[in-house]
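Please decode residue identities from the backbone states below.
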């Protein structure tokens, strides 16, 4: 073995301190004579930084290191390594420098790395960035160090020289390849100069060129401060002045525009409609009213008292009319000898309607489970059939063991025709009505618009167009990557159906349905405006925050408030000078932006971080949300005990997974699940690096907490996006004021992971939108009307590079996740929900209610389900990301046992990922100045 190969191994200078098979330290005492400053030693230190994943500055202090470096004058220049002693014999300092440079470059294996993104110093805060030395426009597993160091001769002291050695080592620590030499290299990409100056300061001369000025006494202290500083994300002070400026730049949105609405109640409209008929032409009164059962029963008595000529009065629900009719009128009178119920349902056929053909089956959900809960029948004894042109909406038959069928009721549901957002499209929701019968024959019918219907039409036809006019003078980019308004708050008060059914997580809630319509239909209103304006939808109009208040007997009323958006360019501060004090400490930084300069004091970000003080990794703050809340990232790996660690180097030696949770804040189980799973992270860190973004949307989470105060079990989709209603995944990798959008790109640049996992959720109970076709929103290509599983997966593969490899990797992941779920209660719940999803959807419309089966769970690979926007990691980086998957648990919004089962489901899903990745073999290659491993990985199950 050559001297160079010995030196750059654990037999020489390198150490595996924690025994995990990864070099995480350099153990050498460099006994440098006072008069000696060979430039080649800077190359040697750069090589030491390249060879390790962690280091500390103990090279010039004798603290019992396992190797010692000695320098001895001689009549020949050579190096010897014996018994842990590296002796460099030299004739002259110049020849010694050449010898050290040769030792640094020794053992190099030639390998061409494809043209990769390069790091840059555009701001002095980039020197020690979130991802190491320099900043990257794009993530890459290959970090090349191309650095030239120059020192004015009058400043050359050994104290400064030693600090330059530390600087070279730390810069190389964050690199996977090294461009030598690091002095007298005019072709180097980045230049660092040290020159004389009256003030001790670090200056950005131009992009990729920075300069330390000062005196012979101050420069070593200043460089020592720079060398020892840590990035603000690690609770250091470096660069925090810029982040502080960004956070402090935020202002609270002001009220800009408001409107109010109120109207008569449905009860008053019903009474007025009956009174307008004059003498009642019938003896039976049938009313459809959007009120809770207690209010409807009370109103029945009022009608009989108010109109004595009426013999009978029945007040039925105008919301999910068929469900309530069967539950309230048929099930209590069910023949105890019947063995089943068959419900014949009319197929929906309204022209231009958004409703699915099975809309009237959907409106029965979950009547079969209610029948099992409240009668002697089992849920599977309740069956449906669909019929074209059936006379009534529903016809119900009781079935008997001897084959008899007995019709026990029929119902025609009144409907309204409501315009949708887009032209020539309509919704046909059930509505209120008064029907007069004479001897079972209908003699008159009078429609009565529900409170929800009348307010929704006001909002759609008056408020939104008026708001659109007020927003007409918008700036380029608004509606796409930043909003028109900060938020719309919609306060609605009505007397409506609201009941927890105690079947799964189901409830009947007409105001939750209105909430969902207001939220999603407003999004579609602006999306349609964008299409009409430019052919591209406005998908980021602003936050839409409906607050629904249920008060029995209340008159319907609403208040709408729009808050101003201050449309400014994202603040992109650039540090041009860092000022040092008399002892070399940082005192202030001068920041340039928009042609102005400001000076900020240097101080640390003081915030407690989870996970500190443990033997596994640590926590960092990647960025701050739009509202200024810190967004932590948990990094699980075996600590080395050294001062500085290199994530990009750790990824080179160990497989790495990034798991994002809490992206949509109303999907509540992923964050507690990952924190619980990683209480036992030490099971994996011998083989893996695990990086977690535990709460990637803190502003959305804050809104969720506000909304769940009044309605703790609603889905609260308004809280899934960020503070201004933006799906921030769409503005990742762009200059943005939304810090939450920066976090995953920063993590990708820092860790270059093999697998990216995004843990999500779906509604835990029925998703009802009467004013959008009853089904979940038209903007979704498939239906989310009811849960399809306790948990399912979505797999993404690239469409070009490495497509087949990605497909094989995905199938290996599916098998691994399936094996974790097999035999667990989650598998049983998945089977239960698949049956429910089939009965109410897939059986009738398999394309709208798709099922892509894998053992024990659904796993979707089709493009109709998988997101395809360019910020998806495997689509952006197909050359090195090996897999990119999403989990979806039925957790919008759940508590207690339901939450615990969703947590367990997420844990099993992520265990499948970790277990598979842990089994894979990967070997770093290259023993010279370029370190690499073959990527993307190929998984074997």
């Amino acid at each position: 073995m050559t001297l160079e190969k010995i030196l750059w191994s654990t037999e020489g200078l390198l150490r595996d301190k924690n025994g995990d098979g990864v070099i995480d330290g350099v153990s050498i005492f460099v006994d440098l004579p006072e008069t000696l400053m060979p430039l080649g030693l800077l190359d040697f230190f750069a090589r030491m930084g390249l060879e390790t994943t962690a280091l500390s500055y103990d090279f010039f202090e004798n603290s019992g290191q396992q190797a010692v470096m000695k320098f001895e004058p001689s009549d020949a220049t050579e190096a010897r390594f014996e018994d842990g002693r590296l002796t460099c014999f030299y004739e002259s300092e110049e020849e010694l420098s050449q010898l050290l440079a040769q030792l640094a470059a020794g053992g190099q294996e030639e390998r061409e790395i494809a043209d990769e993104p390069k790091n840059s110093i555009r701001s002095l805060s980039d020197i020690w960035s979130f991802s190491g030395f320099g900043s990257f426009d794009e993530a890459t597993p290959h970090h090349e160090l191309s650095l030239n160091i120059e020192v004015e001769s009058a400043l050359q002291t050994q104290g400064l020289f030693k600090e330059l050695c530390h600087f070279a080592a730390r810069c190389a620590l964050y690199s996977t390849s090294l461009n030598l030499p690091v002095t007298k290299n005019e072709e180097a990409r980045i230049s660092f100069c040290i020159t004389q100056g009256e003030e001790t300061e670090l200056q950005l001369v131009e992009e990729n060129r920075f300069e330390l000025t000062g005196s012979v006494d101050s420069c070593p202290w200043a460089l020592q401060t720079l060398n020892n500083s840590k990035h603000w994300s690690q609770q250091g002070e470096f660069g925090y002045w810029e982040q502080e400026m960004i956070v402090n730049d935020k202002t609270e949105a002001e009220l800009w525009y408001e409107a109010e609405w109120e109207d008569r109640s449905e009860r008053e409209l019903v009474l007025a409609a009956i009174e307008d008929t004059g003498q009642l032409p019938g003896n039976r009164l049938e009313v459809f009213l959007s009120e809770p059962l207690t209010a409807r029963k009370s109103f029945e008595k009022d009608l009989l008292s108010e109109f004595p000529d009426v013999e009978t009065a029945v007040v039925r629900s105008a919301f999910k009319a068929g469900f309530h009719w069967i539950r309230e009128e048929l099930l209590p009178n069910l023949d105890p000898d019947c063995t089943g119920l068959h419900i014949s349902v009319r197929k929906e056929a309204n022209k231009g309607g958004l409703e699915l053909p099975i809309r009237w089956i959907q409106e029965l959900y979950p009547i079969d489970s209610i029948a099992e809960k409240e009668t002697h029948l089992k849920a599977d004894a309740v069956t449906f059939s669909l019929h074209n042109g059936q006379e009534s909406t529903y016809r119900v038959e009781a079935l008997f063991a001897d084959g008899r069928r007995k019709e026990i009721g029929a119902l025609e549901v009144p409907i309204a025709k409501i315009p949708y957002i887009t032209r020539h499209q309509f919704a046909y929701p059930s509505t209120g009505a008064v029907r007069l019968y004479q001897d079972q024959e209908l003699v008159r019918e009078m429609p009565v618009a529900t409170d929800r219907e009348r307010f929704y039409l006001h909002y759609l036809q008056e408020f939104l167009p008026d708001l659109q006019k007020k927003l007409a003078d918008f700036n380029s980019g608004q509606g796409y990557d930043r909003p028109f308004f900060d938020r719309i708050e919609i306060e609605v008060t009505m007397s409506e159906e609201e009941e927890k059914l105690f079947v799964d997580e189901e409830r009947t809630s007409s105001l939750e349905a209105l909430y969902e319509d207001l939220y999603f239909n407003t999004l579609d209103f602006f999306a349609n405006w964008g299409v009409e304006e430019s052919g591209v939808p406005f998908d980021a109009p602003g936050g839409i925050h409906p607050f629904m208040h249920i008060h029995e007997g209340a008159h319907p009323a609403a208040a709408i408030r729009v808050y101003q958006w201050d449309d400014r360019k994202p603040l992109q501060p650039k540090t041009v000078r860092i000022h040092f004090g008399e002892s070399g400490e940082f005192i202030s930084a001068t920041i340039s932006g928009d042609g102005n300069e400001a000076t900020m004091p240097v101080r640390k970000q003081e915030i407690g971080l989870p996970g500190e003080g443990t033997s596994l990794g640590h926590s960092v703050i990647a960025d701050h949300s739009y509202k200024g809340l810190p967004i932590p990232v948990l990094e699980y790996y075996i600590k080395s005990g050294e001062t500085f660690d290199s994530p990009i180097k750790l990824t080179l030696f160990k497989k790495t997974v990034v798991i994002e949770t809490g992206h949509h804040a109303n999907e509540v189980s992923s964050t507690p699940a990952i924190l619980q799973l990683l209480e036992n992270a030490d099971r994996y860190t011998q083989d893996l690096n695990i990086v977690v973004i535990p709460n990637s949307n803190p502003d959305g989470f804050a809104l969720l907490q506000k909304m769940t105060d009044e309605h703790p079990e609603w889905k609260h989709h308004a809280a899934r996006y960020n503070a201004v209603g933006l799906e921030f995944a769409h503005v990742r990798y762009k200059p943005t004021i939304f810090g939450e959008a920066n976090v995953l790109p920063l993590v990708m640049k820092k860790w270059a992971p093999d697998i990216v996992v995004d843990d999500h959720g779906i509604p835990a109970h029925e998703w009802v939108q009467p004013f959008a076709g009853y089904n979940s929103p038209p903007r979704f290509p498939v239906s989310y009307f009811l849960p399809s599983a306790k948990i399912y997966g979505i797999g993404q593969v690239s469409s070009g590079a490495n497509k087949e490899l990605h497909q094989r990797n995905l199938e290996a992941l599916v098998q691994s996740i399936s094996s974790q779920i097999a035999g667990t209660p989650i598998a049983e719940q998945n089977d239960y929900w698949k049956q429910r999803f089939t009965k109410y959807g897939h059986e009738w419309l398999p394309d709208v209610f798709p099922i892509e089966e894998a053992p024990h769970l659904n796993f979707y690979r089709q493009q109709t389900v998988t997101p395809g926007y360019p910020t998806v990691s495997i689509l952006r980086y197909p050359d090195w990301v090996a897999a990119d998957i999403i989990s979806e648990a039925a957790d919008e919004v759940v508590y207690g046992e339901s939450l615990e089962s969703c947590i367990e489901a997420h844990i099993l899903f992520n265990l499948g990922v970790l277990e598979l990745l842990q089994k894979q073999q990967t070997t770093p290659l290259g023993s010279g100045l370029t370190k690499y491993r073959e990527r993307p990985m190929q998984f074997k199950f």
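Observation: Residues 510-534 form the longest helix (25 residues).
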